[in-house]
Amino acid sequence: MRSAINIFILLIALFFVSCDNKNIYILEGNIKGLKNSELYIVSDTSLRVDTIRAKSDKFTYRGVSPTVEPLVIYMENGSVWITLWVQNGEKFYLTGDVNFPEMMMVKGGEINKLLSEFKTENQSLIKEKCDLRDKLSTNSYLSADSNLNISNSQQSSQLKNVNQILKTRAQDFVEVHTSSIASLVLIQDYILNIENACDIQPFLNLVSADVKKNPLFDKLQILCSKDLQTKTGQPAPEFKIRSIGNDTISLETFKDKYLILTFAASNCIFCQPEYNELLAIKNIFPQKELAILTVSLDENKDNWKKLAQEKGINWTQAIDSMGWASEMALRYNVFSLPCNYLIDNKGVIIGSKLRIDSIQTILKEKINIKTKNNNL
What is the pLDDT of residue 308? Predict the structure, then answer.
């Protein structure tokens, strides 16, 4: 009799556990090489942050997600992270090595399955990409730290080639899996070039109506639309900012002039050579024809003022101490420095995210044409 009662109690317990599991998801992880056992788990929809600890590289987490949504796990004080897709009623398994986050695998759910298959099929390429990126990063750091000129041309070329192959394979994946959110993830991770975000539009057009309902689609579409607004041929976005002389300047301030609009910062290594090039351009073209505006994203204004004095920068400057949160930088889709635009004397962008030498070439052509027309 007692054994029958025990079996009945066990069945009841199992019933309630199974009911509870329908209202939660369970994530189990085994991540090798963790130096910091503290993990931060962020729900994309609710933006809730939970902190858990791994024991012997293993952890278990229970969460709530009525719909399919991305879950981000930050490791090693936030320097490493992985995104997986979760939903109530399912169990997920995360495995991998913290030193190779791109190769972490997730079991459970159709989206994770497809993404893991893509990683497995392209494992050697993804690892090569990570290795090349790390080497380039190390060389850039050494160059800046020791004032050495370390050539990265071969590795940069190899990385570009690997990225192109991965991009092509991701494009093939999207064309086959148009009804899966996994396609949006691969568009974001392998096809999207943030400097030319509008190039992803053909692939966004491929995905099914159900996939387009996912918030990730909206995020990618916004990036694409914003990028289109700062392409060559578009009216330059309006702005209003205070110069270092405390004057209010806007697009109207430079009316009837060509304007070189640059974004920079005092700690930007790749900005350094451009200051001399801009000084040379300033000396070539008359002030009535051309203006230059540099917007510094330095949060500490004194850092920029010191640099400007050292480099002899004597054109119009503004310091937006909001840094990367600068409204003007957002309007002009500034994601890296330096970032240069050329705006014509009618307020139209005629050069988007160009090198300074390319801007000089365009200016020589445009201002020469204008001078000839005036002489007719």
Answer: 95
